[in-house]
Specification:
CATH class of the largest domain: Alpha Beta
Helix content: 40-55%
Strand order of the largest sheet: 1-9-8-5-4-2-3
Radius of gyration: 21 Å
Largest sheet: 7 strands, mixed
CATH superfamily of the largest domain: Type I PLP-dependent aspartate aminotransferase-like (Major domain)
Strand content: 5-15%
Length: about 375
């Protein structure tokens, strides 16, 4: 039995006829950029997220970059964020000339530790940029309160949390701007790169739309220095089809996560914790383990994929290391040494989950037996 991290082929086969028909219509129209499917997708995602505006862009990284620009953040500003995320979160802050300020994480949720943010605020702080890591919403109520108290902007990195909510409100709708990625492996993914910015603010929505289209409101009239960051019609077709199924996809992810947790609890593996404040959509099912390399080898030998998200916290990355040599963030550093992500996707079966749990438990039991033998 071979079990991948994500089964994109299986999902495609279930949607194939609808996707192929959508493609046929686009090919017949020959309108591949800024066409009716992109406009429809923007309206559908705005409605789904409960916001007034959604602007399609070329990637999740572009969504973050353009959102920060639209928020007026630039050189000399500071943006507080997490060190335990993909590099794009911090890259986008650097793109606008601002400085990421890393705050440690909650060791249970892996999200930014809200209790540590206040002491990191300085007169140069302009925004807080939380990441809803692995699909679990950050504590948006507390973050919104902090931003109001200090006059800061709240920009959400929702790359891993499409469909998640915090206290009944979708991620992306809490902040001044919300940024999504449609990378193929995401809960809502296309077949290339893609992204979306959502907001209730009409002025910022217009700023993102202009920046994403070469700084242009009207063709060949350019009011600002912009970018080429446009989602194409083919990707929009895929996303519109998948959007109709996203709640069911996320329901299956949550059901699979429960099976994992029931099978692994108390067996030498620490399952992920749901904080109960929001709905976790399990973009990743990430456990904490000891002797990670050995467990990954056992999984690989059994034909089971696994991955490490993320092996190096951002303040240890070469690009930041020299400037942040004295920064110690123990929870992020410890997580980076122990996290292990297991396959999770809507098409994953109960039998596959049982098999993965068996391999992990057997590996831990064999290790314990070896250690006991060595101590005799």
């Amino acid at each position: 039995m071979t079990i991948p991290m994500v089964d994109l082929q299986g999902q495609f086969q279930s949607l194939r006829s609808e996707i192929e028909e959508g493609f046929r219509q686009v090919f017949a129209s020959s309108q591949f950029i800024q066409g009716p499917n992109v406009r429809a997708l923007e309206a559908e995602i705005a409605d789904y997220c409960g916001v007034r505006h959604a602007i399609a862009v070329a990637s999740g990284t572009d969504a973050l970059h353009l959102a920060l620009l639209a928020a007026g953040i630039g050189a000399g500003d500071e943006v507080i964020t997490t060190p335990f995320t993909f590099i794009a979160t911090a890259e986008a802050i650097g793109y606008v000339g601002a400085q990421p300020v890393f705050v440690d994480i909650d060791p249970q949720t892996f999200n930014i530790d809200v209790d540590q943010i206040e002491k990191a605020i300085t007169p140069r702080t302009r925004a807080i940029l939380p990441v809803h890591l692995f699909g679990q919403p950050a504590d948006m109520g507390a973050l919104a309160t902090l931003c109001t108290r200090y006059g800061l902007q709240l920009i959400e990195d929702c790359a891993q949390s499409f469909g998640a909510d915090f206290q009944g409100k979708k991620t992306g709708a809490w902040g001044d701007l919300g940024c999504f990625s449609f990378f193929p492996s995401k809960n809502l993914g296309c077949y290339g790169d893609g992204g979306m910015v959502v907001t209730d603010n009409a002025e910022r929505a217009e700023a993102v739309r202009i920046l994403a289209n070469h700084g242009s409101r009207v063709r060949y009239h350019h009011s600002v220095l912009g970018y080429n960051s446009r989602l194409d019609e083919l990707q929009a077709v895929i996303l519109r089809i998948k959007l109709k199924h996203i709640d069911e996809y996320n329901r299956r992810r949550r059901a699979n996560a429960r099976l994992y947790t029931a099978g692994l609890q108390g067996r030498g593996v620490t399952p992920p914790v749901e904080d109960g404040k929001g709905t976790h959509v399990f973009h990743q099912y990430t456990v904490l383990v000891d002797d990670r390399d050995r467990l990954m080898q056992r999984l690989d030998a059994a034909g089971i994929a696994s991955a490490i998200y993320y092996p190096i916290p951002l303040h240890w990355q070469e690009v930041y290391r020299d400037k942040l040599a004295d920064l110690v963030l123990p929870q992020a550093e410890q997580a980076a040494r122990r996290v292990l992500s297991l396959p999770i996707y809507p098409e994953l079966t109960a039998a596959q989950i049982e098999r993965i749990c068996q391999v992990l438990i057997a590996a831990n039991e064999n290790q314990a037996a070896d250690e006991n033998y060595g101590n005799q």
